[in-house]
Structure prediction request, 222 residues.
Amino acid sequence: MPDFEALKKAVISGKRIDAVELTKQAIDEGVDPQELISRYLIPALNVVGNKFEKKEIFVPEMMIAARSMQACMDLVKPLLQKDVNLHQGTVVIGTVFGDLHDIGKNLVKLLLESLGLKVIDLGVGVKSKKFVDAAKQHSAGIVGLSSLLTTGDPYVLETVNAMKGSDISSNVKVICGGAALTRKFVEETCGADAYAKDAAEGVRKIKELLGIPAAPTPSRGS
Ligand code: B12
Prediction:
């Protein structure tokens, strides 16, 4: 069995070389890449966040841990890129103005691409007008906002308002995710079409909003 606890510890303490080596081992042993991300890599960053909150670590340590996570993600990425040529719809995605966090956004992007959706990634610190312009330019069916900082709430609200007040509002749905957000704030206060607590829920909701049928469940005995 791959040593998952050692992998988590390596990410938490920012030991990039060890984290990469342990990720390689897990991949070689056939561990499901999505499970690797959701059960070990993301929880490792949650531990980092808690340590930061308790002032046990500071920004540089948080940054080094994030880099270790990203190095592991780079290894997992090719395993998730499958049906990239299906073109089932277009999603514009970005992290809201004032916020530079992008690990979660990049993960959502990767999963959407693996389902055959075209993703236009606007990067981080994106102003509301840029979301609207990109959605128009690419005839997107979905705009996805990521927000990790509570100070980003006004920009989430501003961007949802800008999308809903634009002349393309009837063609584009807005979904928001990220640690700073709640379903109540996103759906009730901002009036977005959906909130997602994690990438898996985000992908499921985006498919629903675009009208993409859920994958058929295998029938019994098949
Ligand atoms: C890594 C990290 C950093 C890295 C970011 C590196 C990078 N390239 O992203 C660095 C070190 C740069 C950083 C900086 C800062 N950070 Co920081 N950071 C984190 C940390 C530890 C992990 C974030 C992360 O990547 N998680 C893993 C990913 C996979 O999870 P996620 O982003 O939530 O995404 C998932 C879902 O939310 C969802 N999702 C996310 N986006 C979207 C979008 C859509 C469309 C959908 C559908 C779904 C979806 O899907 C994802 C996968 O399931 C968090 C703690 C935490 N537990 O979140 C703090 C945290 C977010 N940071 C925090 C702070 C305070 C900061 C700084 C202000 C610190 C400082 N004093 O400078 C700066 C801000 C800089 C800026 N202007 O943005 C606070 C925010 C507190 C708050 N309530 O506002 C947190 C919560 C830490 C804490 N507990 O205090 N940070």
In short: The pocket of cobalamin is lined by residues 42, 45-46, 48-49, 52-53, 59, 62-63, 66, 93, 98-105, 107-108, 144-146, 148-150, 175, 177-180, 196, 198-199, 202 (CB under 6 Å). Residues 217-222 have pLDDT under 50 and may be disordered.
